[in-house]
Write a structure and sequence with these properties.
With about 525 residues, the chain is α/β, with parallel strands linked by helices. It has a seven-stranded mixed β-sheet, with helices on both faces. α12 links the parallel β12 and β13. The radius of gyration is 24 Å and the shape is globular.
Length: about 525
């Protein structure tokens, strides 16, 4: 399979021309548009999938939580209940960790040949491919992301990722090191043990893959806590892992809430490694719990306030489309969203008018409907938080150019929103909104935009749009972030490392760099007697 790239597959740059030519991007044209009442009047499409798994997955079996409690997971299109899911708490984390510990200390997984582990990962990827439509439907139903995005982009990326790590399984090895004296020295790269993993709700299966793939390739066992908003897809695909031949206890999935299940996992004394993706505030709590327990190493992928810099030599039409994608992708619920759009003053007015028009023509509706670009936000809490930021922008003096309100009469839909005249000291320019709100700022020269782009606690990603190679090189080295995309955005190949600087976290996921998160290095020194060479 070719390396999937979100932008190349999902970007409206390839579909916009066709949609515009057909009239679907016309403000007064036919079809769904910003002024459509489809969300308010149409019945939601019935998802083509059945909910089969709502229990915890511990030691290879689906079981109820120890307390017997359940919690609802909601359809963001309506606010209605999809299913009631077993609520895991501290006792369930204990059970899951015990199963993972036994599987690591006594089970076959770390003792299999690396080739055998690779085969399990490959069989799992094949099963994901076979069940892609059902998995995508679960992901859309639970999270509100469009079905086309889930089925055509995200699930293929997860499949590719597991095949990528299957390829790494038998290529993990240490070194032989020449030293002073008559010694044979080698290093062993050993699995770290039981890995605790906490994934977010915005990309449930992608984050599942980013964490589970390298951990299993290295021979570890896992206890994974899903986000309470989106527990369904991880339970479904984890069952497929056992069908692929994963031994019992190697992968355990506990659904539950952060203050209970998440805190118990982060602070557990028998967890050897922790990986967390989520907000910076919660990341600080997780890091503290890990430190106070057994000083387990922690990988953190946290929030962002990524700059998207449009230089004066830019093709404005292409820059507008790319900046739109950089911000509005996944309903704006993306940690690396290009949420500060810096535009050179010489093209600012033209860019603003075209960005406004693009937002007004963004297709919002039922994410199961073909052609829809934007579904609902995840839940009422995020919905109200975003509307609060929009109100803050208006009250803070920014100019509301488009959107700014809820969309439809039910569910958690928000109009694509654009602000101009945004200044660096405004709340909407400083804090992570995590929604469909584009802030467009003006700059004069490179030195100024570098200083302003870096004047944030975050450092996850940045976008640069320019035709000048020298400008691209200057910005890519000056921006204090973990990823810089030049004339592209959201390119997430399995081999490309991803992670942040500053309060956007530490450590890298994906690629070869992620393997070090789940390995520990041991030096072995042996005296040599009468060596023929050193």
């Amino acid at each position: 399979m070719a390396s999937p790239r979100i932008f190349s597959l999902l970007s409206a740059s390839s579909t916009a021309a066709a949609l515009r030519s057909s009239g679907r991007f016309s403000r007064w044209g036919r079809g769904i548009n910003r002024f459509s009442t489809a969300v308010a009047t149409e019945e939601p499409i019935t998802p083509p999938v059945q909910i089969d798994h709502t229990q915890l997955l511990i030691n290879g079996r689906f079981v109820d939580g120890a307390s017997g409690k359940t919690f609802p997971t909601f359809d963001p299109r309506t606010g209605g209940v999809i299913a009631h899911v077993a609520e895991g708490e501290a006792e369930d984390i204990d059970r899951a960790v015990s199963a993972a510990r036994k599987a690591f200390d006594e089970g076959p997984w770390p003792r299999m040949t690396a080739h055998e582990r690779s085969c399990v990962l490959l069989r799992f990827a094949d099963l994901l491919e076979r069940h892609c439509s059902e998995i995508a439907a679960l992901e859309t139903w639970d999270s509100g992301k469009t079905y086309e995005q889930a089925a055509n982009v995200e699930i293929p990326m997860v499949i590719r990722l597991f095949r990528y790590y299957a390829g790494w399984a038998d290529k993990i090895h240490g070194l032989t090191i020449p030293v002073d004296g008559q010694y044979h020295v080698q290093t062993l790269h050993e699995p770290i043990g039981v890995a605790g993993q906490i994934i977010p709700w915005n990309f449930p299966l992608l984050m599942y893959g980013w964490k589970v793939g390298p951990a299993l390739a290295c021979g570890n066992t896992i206890v994974l806590k899903t986000a309470e908003q989106t527990p369904l897809s991880a339970l479904y695909v984890s069952k497929l892992f056992y069908e692929a031949g994963l031994p019992p206890g190697v992968l355990n999935v506990v659904s539950g809430f952060g203050p209970t299940a998440g805190a118990a996992l982060a602070g557990h004394m028998d967890v050897d490694k922790l990986a967390f993706t989520g907000s910076t505030g919660t990341g600080k709590i997780v890091l503290g719990l890990a430190a106070k327990s057994n000083l387990k190493p922690v990988t953190l992928e946290l929030g962002g306030k990524s700059p998207f810099i449009v230089c004066e030599d830019a093709d404005v039409d292409k820059a507008v489309e790319l900046s739109h994608f950089a911000l509005f992708f996944n309903q704006g619920q993306c940690c690396c969203a290009g949420s500060r759009t810096f535009v050179h003053e010489s093209i600012y007015d033209e860019f603003l008018e075209k960005a406004k028009a693009r937002a007004l023509n963004r297709i919002v509706g039922d994410p199961f409907k073909k052609g829809v670009e934007q579904g609902p936000q995840i839940d009422s809490e995020q919905f109200n938080k975003i509307l609060g930021y929009i109100k803050s922008g208006i009250e803070g003096g920014a100019t509301l150019e488009a959107g700014g309100e809820k969309f439809g009469s039910r569910g958690y839909y928000i109009q694509p929103t654009v602000f101009s005249n945004v200044h660096d000291n405004m709340v909407i320019a400083k804090e992570e909104i995590f929604g469909p709100v584009q802030s467009i700022l003006k700059f004069k020269d490179l030195d100024e935009v570098i200083q302003r782009a870096n004047a944030t606690h975050y450092g996850l990603a940045a976008g640069v749009f320019t035709q000048n190679l020298d400008t691209a090189n200057t910005l890519s080295r000056a921006l204090k972030v973990g990823t810089v995309w030049i004339n592209c955005f959201n390119v997430f190949d399995a081999a490309i490392p991803f992670g942040g600087k500053k309060m956007s976290g530490h450590g890298r996921e994906k690629g070869i760099y992620s393997l070090s998160n789940y390995l520990q290095v041991k030096a072995v020194v042996t005296p040599l007697k009468n060596p023929a060479w050193l």
